[in-house]
Amino acid sequence: MSIHNKELLTQFSKYQRVGVFVDVQNMFYSAKHISNAKLNFEKLMEKAVRGRQLIRAICYIIDTPDIDQTNFTDMLKNNGYEIKCKALRQRSDGTAKGDWDMGIAIDAISLCDKLDIIVMVSGDGDFADLVKHLKSRGVLVEAISFIGSTNDDLINSVDVHIPIENDLLIKKRKTRNYKKR
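Predicted structure:
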């Protein structure tokens, strides 16, 4: 079920305990490729929590050696997110691998008894089985993601899917070229 209606957004109790799990790489690349923008993590937190009781919000990041992410991680911490970081692994064939799917799943299962609602911020269809398991444990599961990069299995498995729209994006400003006279 997708949310486009404000009534559905406010049907939850302010006493419900919420956990937010953000697949940062999935969101970064989706925002960049679909909207040529960046995700506004402050507004994302507001949309994920929606006045309910936040228990944990965790961002899962891949540490790439040639990119300094200090400013980014500081911004996340200032907006109430915990950071979990994992090094990008270089394979012997020269390719690299870095994902947090298992870590996110383990954390969500470990915390589900302390939560009423889990918000998955990812479009990764690999989480569909996790969602089914969490729901079997009595947890409501929501997903926040880009429609254009969200697997149908994930959308169909969650209780509520909230599409990322312009209100959650930071678009690059267009610069004007002025001719000198």
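Summary: Residues 24-35 form the longest helix (12 residues).
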